[in-house]
Amino acid sequence: MGAAGVWYLLLLWLGCIGVGVCGGGGGGPVLVLEPPPKAYLSNSSGVTLRCAALATPPPTITWIDAAARTLTSQPPLREVLSDGRLWVSDIGGGRTRTSYRCRATNPAGTVISRAVTLTKVTSTGVRVVAEGSSVGAGGVGVVRCVVEGGGEWQVRAWLRQRTPTSAPIPLPDAGRYVYGTGGRLFVQDVGVEEGEARYLCRAAHPAAPAQALTSPPVAITVMRKFNRRIPPRVEGEGRVVEVEEGKPFTLPCLASGHPPPHYSWSREGVGGEVGGLGGSGGRVWARGGVAGGARASGRDAGGWRCVAANGAGTDTAHFTLTVLQRLRVTPTPPMQTVRAGGRVTISCVVEGAPVAEVRWYKDGTPLHPAHAHAHAPAHSRITLQDRDTLVIASVRARDAGMYQCVAANSLGEAQAASQLAITASAPSLQQTFIEQTVHPGPRVSLSCSSLGHPPPAITWTLDGRPLSPSPPDPYQGPRVALGSWIDSGGQVVGQVNISRVTHLDGGKYTCTAFNTEGSVSHTASLNVYGPPTVRGGGNVTVVEGSASEVFCPVAGYPLASLTWTLHGRPLTPTPRRSPRGRGGGLAITKVEAGQDVGRYGCTATDTQGRTATADFFLAVVKPPVLADLKFPGNLVEGMLLSVTCSLLSGDLPITLSWQRDGLPLPRDPLLTETHSQFFSNLVFAEIRGRHAGTYTCTASNAAASSTVSATMDVQVSPWWVVEPADVAVAGGSEVRLECHAQGTPPPAITWKRATDGAGGEEWVGVGGGGGVGVGMGVGGSLVVAAAREEDSGRYMCTADNGISPALTKTITLTVLEGARVEERVVNQSSAVGDSTSLRCAARGHLPITFTWARGGVPITGSEDEVLREEDSGRTSVLHLPATRRSHAAVYTCQVANQYGQDSATFFLSVVERPDPPGHVHVQEVRSRSVSLAWAPPYDGNAPLTHYLLQHWPARPPTGPPENTTLPRHLTQATLKGLSPGRTYHLRVLAVNSRGASPPSPTLSITTLQEPPTAPPTHLVARPHTSRPATLTLTWQAPAAHLDPGEITGYQIGYKEASDGGEGAGGVDDGWRWRSVRGGQRQAELGGLRYYTLYTVTVRAVNRVGAGPSATPVTVTTGQGVPSGAPGDVQCDPLSSQALRVRWTPLPRHLTNGPIHGYKVSYKRASNIQGSNAVEVKRTTNLETNLQGLGRFTNYTIRVLAYNGAGDGALSSPVHCATLQDVPGAPPAIRALAASEDSVMVSWLPPRQPNGVITGYTLYYRPLNAHQATMKEMVNAGVGGGGGWWVEVSRSVGGLISHARYEFWVSASTRVGEGAVSRVVSQSPAMDPQVGARIRSFGQVVEVPAGSPLTLPCSAVGSPPPSVTWSILGRPPPPSVAQTLPDQSLHLASVSPPNSGNYTCTAHNPSGRDEVEWAVVVVEPPAPPTLRVQFATQVAIHLAWSPQGDGGKPITGYIIRFQLEGTPPETGWKEAWVEPDRSSHTLDHLRCGSTYHLQMAAVNQVGRGATSRTVNTRTRGAAPRQPRHQDLISVNSSSITLHLFTWPSGGCPITGWSVEYRPHSRSAFTPAVPHPLPSDTDTLTLPDLAPLTWYQLRVTAHNAAGSTTATYDVATASLTGATLAPASVVEVTGVGRGGGAGLLDPHVLAPVVSGVACTLALLLCVGLLLSRGRAHFMKLGQMGGRRGKGGGGRSVSSSSSGVGIYSRSLAELQNHHNDSQEQLSPAAREKHEEAYTVSGAYEVCPYATFPAPPRPAPPCPAPATPPGDYTLHFSTFGHQDNLEGPPRTGRGRRGPGAGQGGSGGAEIACISSQQTLPISSAGGLRGVRGLRRKDGEAEGGGGGGGGGGAGSDSEQDTSGSPGDTLTHHPPRDTYKVPVRLRRGPDFSYHPPDSSTESNDERSPLPPRRPPHQHPPPTTTTTTTAQHPPPPTQHPAHPARAHAFTPAQPRAIRSSSTLESVYSVDGSLGGALRPPTGFSDSRELSEAECDRDAARKQQGRSHHPSGQCLADCVRIGQNILGTTDVDQTE
Questions:
Q1: Which has the closest alpha carbon to 263: 134, 136, 139?
Q2: What is the C-alpha to C-alpha distance for residues 807 and 130, in angstroms, rounded to an integer?
Q3: Is the distance from CB of 1420 to CB of 1505 less than 8 angstroms?
Q4: Angstrom distance (rounded) from CA 1986 to CA 219
Q5: Buried (b) or exposed (e) across 761-784, using 16+ Cβ within 10 A?
Q6: Interior CA angle at 1412 toward 1409 and 1418, to 5°?
Q7: Which terminus has fewer CB within 10 Å in the chain: N or C?
Q8: Ranges assigned E (strand) in 1323-1444
Q9: Could you give the maximum distance between any two Cα atoms of the chain, in Å?
C-alpha cells in the first residue's frame, strides 16, 4: 500500500473518532498489519501469521479459512494466539495448500485482510530434469530445466561439464550463457565441440534453498552445417511473456537458418535499438537472440520487435511483454455519514496491472450488487456503477458498516475499506391509508409505513384515544388486531386489521410514527353505516400550549349534525376553540389549562333523527423540561466524575433514563446510576477509555418526553497494538519494522536510529523521506526497501499522543549481507597491443572468494592473464599485459561468501576497423532513385561514425565514384537524382574511429522509365441518348508522348461539380476513377446521379503509371423520375366532405430533375358506400384540398412527385377520415298494435349514418287532432347490434284506445339530428286479442362465408304468437340453423349453400304474418393466375388474370415473394397492388437469385387463397474468372491486381477478398483486413520479396454468389530477372482424385489427342524414311556445311548433358511486368483482336514452330562439327498466342534463302507452361515458307549472320514476352542463365529491352488464311542438339508428348542477355521453383483443338486428323516432294 493509502486509512480512523458516528459510537477497524500474500510451511518448523488493526473501541482479531469459517485453536496443527497471531504447524487433511484471512471487528463493523496462501514445502516426489535441444552450428542452443512435482521451484544455478567425465563447473549468467526465465539456459554461438559438453540445472524452492536438487546431465545436439543458404525462420512459441514487476525477464528470439542469423532488437513505439548489456544502467539488454531486463518495470511492457537476418533473407518476430504489478487500493471517501434515505457512492482506486477482478464486501460478507449497465432490477438498491464504484440508493439503517473492495490478480490481493455511518433522522411517512366508507361486515385493513433512524415505532388512535386490539375469539381470533414489522426495504410498517367491521369501528383513525428525533402522524376517517352510538372512550389528556383536536366518541354514519357542550352548557365557538363541522372534532389551536379543562359533551344526530350523546373529561398536562447536560473537558483515563441530569419543570410523575450512543447503558462496575424525583446522577468511580461516547438523558410523563445530550471525550495514553521486535534479514531483501500503537487521541509514531556522535551515541530520526530506500509503511511501520549491511543497527520506535506515559521500544536490525559486486556490468575497450586491467570490487562479510571466467571457461592465471587481489581481499584484478583480438570476450567475476553470491560481467572490446556492410541489396528501383538496405557490419568494437554510399554510371566510364555520407544508425537509404533508364554501380562502406572498411560487393541497377508526360486532348462529354444516368465520353490520344512506354489504357475521373476542387490529379480532391483497357478512346460512364452537373477528365496510363489529366469538362446528366417520395404527408379533415393534405418537398438529391408538380391519389378505405376507385389530383403546391368526399369516410392518401421523366415513387399511405355529419333518414319504419293502449314502433338505422349514431327521436301524435307532437328519445344501443339491417324498436304506451296515431323517427349524431323517416299511422288494439304481427323487416343480407348469422324475427300479438322458420318452404335442418329463445334464427357458420330466402312466420288465433330474408353468402376472391412476363437483374415483371371476385368487388392484390433459401417464417415479403392493375414489377431484388412467388386477391370479405407458387430467377450469375494476363501485373516488390477487368457475370460485383501467401508457407494472409468495395479498380500488394513465388486467392462477390480464382505469380528481381517455371511440362485442371482425374475431359482429351497425333506422326515418319533415306543423308551433310559457314554464333551442348536452361512463361510474364506499378502492357489491345479474328485453325496456345531453314535433312547429322549442335526455338508466350496470327514475312529472297524455304518443323499441342524445340533459321516468316513451289520458299529464307534472309525493312524483328531460351534438362533442376562476373562480387542487369515487342506492325491484315500456322516473332535462341524428353511433373503423370529433334542449325541470336541475375551467387544456391505451378486455368490439347476448329470458316477438323495433315505436309516439305493440297 502506498503513502496515499496510509493517509486515507489514518484519515478514516481519525474521522470516525472525531465525529463519533462510526457505527456504534466509534471508528471502524483499520488493518495496519496484514499477513503476506504467500507463506510457506516447511517440515522442520511452523509459521506464524500476524495481523493487527486500529479502531475505537479496539477491534477483535479472528481468523477465517477459505469458506469463511472461524478458526479455533487445534493443537498440534494450529493455535490462535491472544494477540491476534495465528501459528500453524501443519495444514492437515493431507493437503499441501490452503488459504486464510484475518478479520477485525468492533461495533462499527468488520473488515477482512487479503488472503494468505499457505503452502507446504517438501522435496518428496520432486524430480529435476534437464532437456536439451537441437541447433545448427553457430546458432543458439536451449536447455530447459523441468521440475516435476514442484510447483514453485526455481532454477538456482546452471552447471557445465566440458566432457561427460569432467566435473561440473557453475556457469555465469554472462557471455555466451544467458539465464532465461522459465528455467531456460540459452547458449549463444554453439560450436561443433558443444556436442561433447553436458549441462545440469540445480533447482530449489525459494522457502527451502537448502533442499536443492540437481538434474542428470544432458547434451545439446549440434547439427552439421548446410551447403546452401537458408533464410532465417523464428520459432513461433512464447511470443507473449508475463513477468512480475521488479523480477528479471528474457525474450528469446530463436531463429534457424544458414548462415547463422544476426539479431537486432527494438521497442515498438520507442525509437532506437535495444543496445547491449550496459544500456539503461544494465536494466534492459539485448544479447544476440535474447533480450531481457534485470528488473521489469511498467515502462518495459508492450511490444518488442526482433529482426533475424542473414545473407538469405530476414524474418521478424513480435513479442508482447506484460508486467504484472502488485495492486494497491485506495478508498474514496474513507468515511462518510449520511441520513437515512439518501444516496451513497463508494469508490476504490486500484493501482497496478492487470486487475483480474474486484470484489465487494460489507462487514466481511461478500456483496453481490447488480450492475447498473446490465438492466438491474428496480428493487436493487445496491448496484455497481462500474467495476470500482458501488452505489447505494435509499440508504437504510442496516446499511451502516464497513465496505471493502478487494482487488486481485495472479500476484495476490489488495484491499481497502470505507466506513458508512447513518445519522439520526426524524420519521417520515412513506405510505398511508385513505378515507373509506363501508357497510358493516367486510374486512378492513389500514396501514402506514415509515422511514427514520433509529427505526421509528408506530402507534394507533381512534378519535384521539389509543386503539387496543379486541379480545381474541376462541374460534376466529381477535376481531381487531394491531401489528408492525420492518419490510425488506427497511421501512417500519404498522397495520390495523378488522376482520368484521361494525358501525362501532367507525371514526377518525390516526397512525403516529416516532423516534428520538421526532414524530409524524396521519389521520383519515373510516365511515361505517349505522345509527349514532356512544363508544366507550374514557377521558382525554392534552399537552398545554400545543394545538389539539378532540373527537366525539360517537360512532355512526352518516351524521347530520354534531353539537358540543362544556360543563353542560352549549359550547360557544371562538377563534381559539371551535368545532370542525359534523364529521370533525373540536379544534383547539393552543391549549390553555384555565380555559380548556372540564367535562365536554357531544351529541350526534343522523339523517333519520336518531341521536347519541357522549361525555368525557379533558385534562391538560405540562411536558417535562430538562437542564443542559455538560461534561468537563480534558478528561483523562483514571479520573473520577459525577454527571447530573436535572428536571426544571413538568407535571409529575416523571421518569428519567440514560443512554450512551443510542443504546441503554451496559452493566459496568465502575459506573453507578442514581435517581431521585427531580434529578438523576451518573457516577464514574474510575474513568476508562470505553466510557467515551454520547450520553442522552430522557424525561417522560403522560404528556410528552424531553431529552438532552452531551459527548464525553476521554484521553487515553498509548498502548501497543504491535510491539516492535528484533529483526535479522538477508541483505538485498525488503524488511519491515512493525510498530503500531493506539490511544486517544491517536498517537504519532516516530522512528530514530542510533549513530556514533562526537559525544557518544546519538539518535537520529529516520523514515521521514530523507533516507534512500527507507520510508514509513502502514500504521507506523518502518520499511527498508533493499536492506544493506550499513542499515544494521539499533532503532527506537516512539508512540506519543501527549498523554503520559508515552511508549518507547528499542530494537536491533541485523543485515546479514552476502557478497555483492559494486558494478554488475562494466564495458571496457582496448586497442590491439595495449595493456588493460579488469577490476572486480565486492562488498559483504569477509572472507570473499573471487572466480574469473572468459566465455564460461574458468581463468586460473598465466603470463597473458595475471590475477591479483587488492583492498584487503575486497577487490580482484585481472591484468592483460598485451591485448589481442582473441581477448575480445565476455568476462565474469563470481564473488561469494557464506551469506550469498553475486557476479559482475565485463565486456572487453578490442577496437579495430569495421568489416564491410553485409547483405547489401536493392529494396526498390524507381525512375530517378534507388533504395538500398544492408545489415550493420562488425563495427570493430568501436562505434561506427558513418557510412559511405558510392555510385557511378556504368556507361560511359567516368571518374571516381560520387560519395554520399550517411548517419551511422541508418541501415537503408534512398539515392536520388538519378536519370531514368540508366545503369549505375553502387557499393557501401562503413567507417569508425579506426578508419573505413573495405567496400561491399558492387551492385548494378537500371532505373525505371516514367509515366506519360502529356494529357489526352479533345475531351468531349455528353449525356447518353437513351440512358439519362450515363455519360458518353470521347477523346484523342496525348499530343506529346515522351517515350514513357506504350499507352495501355486510360483512366476516367469524375466527380460532382459541387464537390469543389479544380485539379484532377489530387488524391483527396473528391475524384473517382474508372479504368478503360486498351487504346480505345471512347467510353460510357454509367451509374451516375440523374440531372447532376459532373466534372469529367481523363488521363493516359502505361505500364509505369498514370500521366497528367486532361482539362476537365462539365456536363449534366439527363433527367430521371424522382427516386423518392414526398415526406411527412399529413391530412386534416376540413369538413364532412373535404380533407386538407400537406407534405414536404423532396430533398434535392432525390428530385432527379425539376419537379413539375405533385399527384395526390386517394380512395376510400372500404367500399361500403360508393366506389373505392383511386382518384388522382394534380397540384404544384405543397398542400391541397380534396372536395366532394364521402361523409364520415376513411380515405387512404398517397402523394408522388413527377417531373419531365415521369412519376416518382408513391409515399407511404396515410389514413384520414372526413368529419361527421347529420345522418340520413331511417329507410323503413313500422308501427304495430301491441295492446289496447300501446303501439310497437320499429325502424331500421340509416343507410348513410354519416357518423356515429348517438340516438333516435321517435315522434308521434294523434291523427287529425290538434295536439302537440310528442317525442321520445331512444338510445342508439336499443335493439342490439348485428348490422345496419337489424331494426330498432320502441313500445309507445299510454295511448288512447281507438285513436289513430302518426309515427315517424329521425337519427342523430353528435353533429345534430338528421332527416326524418316516412310517416306511418297505427291505432292501439281494439280488444284484448291482438293479431300476430312481425316487427322485423325482411331484407337482403350479405354475409361473409364462415361467419355466424342471426336473423331476427320479433313478433307481437295477444296471445303471444308462435314463430316458425322455413328455407325455401322447408324447415331448416338442425345441423344448419337453430331457433333461439327470442325467435331469431342462428347459423353458426354460413357457407355458399346457405344462400337463399329465409321466411319467418308468426301466427296466433287472431292473425298471421310473415317476413322474408334474402341471404347472400359472399367469399374472398379466388386465387388469380400468376405468370412471369420477364425478369431483369433486379426486377421481375409479373402479370395475372383474376379468377373470380367471390361476390364482392376486388379491392386489391397481394403479391408474396421469398428469396430462395430464407426461412419460411421470416423470408416471405408482401407487396400491395391496386385492383385496377393486371401487372406489376417487383424491383430492388437480388441479382441472379431464385424467388418463389405467390398471389392472392382481396375483397371486402377478406384475403383470398394463395395462388400456386411460381419460381423464377433474376438475371445474372456469379462473377466469372478473368484471365491471368488481364488481371495481374507484377514487378520486383509488388503485384498489382486490375480488378476492373473481372467479368461481373451480369450482377454488379459488390466486393473482393484478396489473400496471398508465399509458396513456402501454407497459410494465406489477407491483403486488406476487410473486403474491398466494389468501386476498387486496382489493388497493389506491396512489400513483397523479389524472386519469390506467390499464390493469390482472389474472390469476387456479387449478389448471385462468389467466384474464387487462384493464381501463381512469381515476382522479378530488382533488376528484372525472373524465376524458372515449376516444370516445362505442366498440366492444369487435373482432378483431385486419382481415378477421377484421369476421367476429367481436360486430361482425357489431350491424352487421346496426343496418342492420335503420335500414331499419325510415326506412320508419316515410317513412310518418309523408306522413301528418302538417301535424301535425308544428303541434306544432313549440306546442313552441316551451311551451319558451319553461316557465320552464326552457336552455343553448344556436349554429350554430357550440360545444357542451356530456358526461361518459362511465368518468367517472361514477370519480366514483361517488371517494375510496372499500374497496368499490364498494351497487349490487352491485341488481346481483343484474338476474339475477332476468324479463319485459320490454331494448333494450340504455346505451340512451338520452326523458323524456315535452308533445306536440311530432318534427322541429326552424324558428323556435325563441335560447336554446331544447335537447335532453334521460337515459342509463343501466353499473351502472344492470344494476340492473333503473327504476320507472314514478305521479304525478298536473298542469298540466305538457299534452295528452298522449306525446312523441318516440330509442332506440339502443349499447355501454357510448355515449350517444345523446333528448328529455326533466321526468323519465322510464316507457314507459307513450309510450302515448296518451284524449289523456293514463299516466305523467303532465313538465316542470320552471313546468310541474310532478306531486307530488314520487310522482316518482323519485334520481340515478344513469349521469347525464351528453351531446353528440357535431364533432371528436375532449374537455373536462370547467368554470365558470372569475375571477382568477389557479382553484377546483374535486366534483360535487354530488345526482347520486348515494339510498336512495329506487319503490313498484312489481321485475318489469317486457312491452315497457315502462325509463326512467332523472331527472337531466336539456342539450345542442345538432342533435347531429352520433357520432365514429367510429379503431380500430372497422365501427360506425355512426343518430340522429334530437328536438324542442327547455327544462327545468331537477334538479342542477347548481357547479364542475368545469378541465383547461385545471390541467395545461396539454386532456386528450385514450386511444384505444381500454374498461373491460371489453361487449355488442354483437346480444348485448344476444339476452339481452333470452331474458328475455321465452313469446315471443322478432328484434332487427330489435323495432326495427320500437318504431319503429311511437313514430311513433303522435308522431302521436297510435290505440295499437298491444304484440304488433305
A1: 139
A2: 56
A3: yes
A4: 67
A5: eebeebbeeebeebbbbbbbbbbb
A6: 165
A7: C
A8: 1330-1334, 1340-1344, 1349-1351, 1355-1358, 1362-1367, 1378-1379, 1385-1387, 1396-1404, 1407-1418, 1425-1431, 1436-1441
A9: 171
Grid cell digits, residue 1219: 368529419
Residue 1093, C-beta contacts closer than 8 angstroms, at least 6 positions apart: 1056, 1057, 1058, 1114, 1115, 1116
CA distance 1616 to 1328: 128
Cell numbers found for residue 1774: 501466353
C-alpha span between 1819 and 1912 (Å, rounded): 9
What is the gyration radius of the CA atoms in the chain, in angstroms? Answer: 55
The CA distance from 1429 to 112, in Å, is 81
Amino acid at 1908: Q
The amino acid sitting at 603 is: T
* Nearest one of 1043, 927, 932, 924 to 979, comparing CA atoms: 927
Contact 1949, 1705 (CB under 8 A): no
C-alpha cell at 1517: 450469375
C-alpha cell at 490: 427497511
Residues near 1543 by Cβ (< 8 Å), separated by ≥ 6? Answer: 1519, 1520, 1521, 1522
Return the C-alpha cell found at 1568. Answer: 486488406
1266: CB partners within 8 A, 6+ apart: none
CA distances for 381 relative to 358, 365, 369, 378, 1521, angstroms: 19, 17, 8, 8, 64
Q: Has residue 1743 got a pLDDT over 50?
A: no
Q: What is the pLDDT of residue 1040?
A: 57
Query: Is the separation of the CB atoms in 1857 and 1712 below 8 Å?
Result: yes
Sheet holding 344-351, edge to edge: 328-332, 344-351, 389-392, 382-386, 370-371
Q: Is the pLDDT of residue 309 over 90?
A: yes
Please check whether residue 1589 is in contact with residue 1609, taking contact to mean a CB–CB distance below 8 angstroms.
yes
Residues 477 and 443: beta-carbon distance below 8 Å: no
* Residue range 1639-1683, pLDDT digits in tens: 444 455 566 667 777 787 788 777 666 655 444 444 444 444 444
My answer on whether omega of the bond before 1646 falls inside 30° of 0, hence cis, is: no
Alpha-carbon distance of 1996 to 1985, in angstroms, equals 10
Q: Give the C-alpha separation, 904 to 892, whole Å.
A: 6
Q: Give Cα 1177 to chain centroid, integer Å.
A: 52
d(CA 1465, CA 1485): 19
Contact 286, 312 (CB under 8 A): no
1288 pLDDT higher than 60: yes
Are 1100 and 1012 contacting, i.e. CB atoms less than 8 angstroms apart?
yes
pLDDT in tens, 1089-1109: 899 999 999 998 877 778 899
* C-alpha–C-alpha distance, residues 902 and 1321, integer Å: 132
Closest CA to 892 of 879, 907, 881: 907
Cα(1005)–Cα(1614) distance, integer angstroms = 8
In sequence order, what are the beta bridge partners of 1602?
Answer: 1597
Quick one: cell of 1622?
Answer: 515449376
Alpha carbon of 1185 to those of 526, 1174, 1180, 1814: distances in Å? 61, 16, 13, 90
CA distance 1731 to 411: 74
* Contact assessment for residue 1553 and residue 1595, using Cβ atoms and an 8 Å cutoff: yes
The strand pairing partners of 294, in sequence order, are none
DSSP class of residue 500 equals: S
> Rounded to whole angstroms, how far apart are CA atoms 1603 and 1594?
8
Bridge partners of 1412?
A: 1399
